[in-house]
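Quick one: structure tokens for this chain, please?
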Amino acid sequence: MSLHPLAPEIVAETNAWFYALHPRGQKLRGPNGDTPLHPTSAEDAEGRRAWVAEYRRRMAEKQAKGGNAPSEDEDLDDRIDPLSSILCCCPTDFTLAPEFMTLEAEESALLYATDMPPAGFGAGTYTWTTFGAGTYTWTTTSDKLSLEEASMPGLQVAEGAQVWIRAGTEPNTMVEAEPGELVEVTRTQPGCAPITKQAWVFVQKCKEFRLRQPKIIAIATASYLTPTTTFADPGLPGGHALSFGQDLSFSTSRALPQGSPSVGTTTASLENTMRRLLIIFASNMFRFPWNDRSDMAEQLFDAFLTPQRAVEFWSNEDLTAAAEAHPNIASFVSRALSAPNSRERSEGRTRIHQALENAGWDINKAVPPTDLGVPAFNRGTDWLQTRDFDNGLALMVNAIQHGIVVAKDYYYDRCKGEYFIKLEYVFYDVFGLDDDDLREFGADGGIDTDAAAGITAWWQLQHQHGYAPLITRIAFEREFRFPVS
């Protein structure tokens, strides 16, 4: 269909139609003459498109009847559509960012296009295509780039003003003749000439030995544990089973060990006696900075004293925050890594850094050390009831029984000579008592303190009334980058 030049008679017909029937044209119609459409305003953009569509319909109808048909040798692709000027201000440019990037193998990045209002108006669409460097035809068999939601294999096409691109596993070779992978974006708009821009993506492979899946990379176990049972944590890789002693058991109608007197016969009286421990070891009375302002210990007591008939994990945001800030935990985090620039190190011991080094920095081959010492919440003097013995931490946990370090993400960057590692630290203790706890800290029938009575009441609820103990679980993550020689 020929559109050039515009046919005056069809222009007149289209004007008559527009001012008579189109809502915008009716508003612009006046007794002293019709107001023309504004050539650039957004308000008249729809009217301009409607006028052009009607003109084209009428021209097509006329040409179908045999008038003004184009000649066979006319190069339609070289002809400029005069209607683009009627739509007005066709875009002449847009922003493409970034135009050059280096993308690590197997990583993704976002390319996006943005309209530039001074360069034109109108709702356009963006089409992204990729081509192989040099030949300008790229398929997925090169395994260097893939476009989000693009069909594969073959030439990839994705729609939208932005697109995620992902690098394959094969990097570019370091030669001048190969600047990278070409990503081309074409902006199209009805009635306007298309605009095309290009972005170059160089794919490199610096990051090696990526972690295939979360992996336990270090283990700490309390040396005093006498295992009698195991309990699996589904949150650990492979559902790693943790060993525990008698303090994880519970029963009904057990006799008190010899020399330990009863401090109550009903659960109500025993619960009240046990709660006295909160006043002694987790008091808010003085509001010192280290006191249990969050009532985390009381929340743990409430959970235990709502009788459960099965062992469960118990976590609490305030307990986790208090643990993260504790200097003994900070020491454990540093010593577990024992990198050359760690604040504290376990000299002469194989820790996480040494295990990685022994494996040639391939974490998937690293052998986790299992002889780490466990931290404890035992700062202060307990006869003065200070710090951990007044902020609830010693009452809730005191000596941690297990510390598991899980690698969640890792890579070795050979270009920078460093490795990145994301670690999750998970600590466990049993909120429960065994017979040794009762003998050491419980009532003995003499002049018993409230603390001794509270310990005995706790033991009785657990071993005579079937109150199941809880496993406190503290977990937080840290990220590190360390240089390697």
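Residues 144 and 168 are 4 Å apart (CA to CA).
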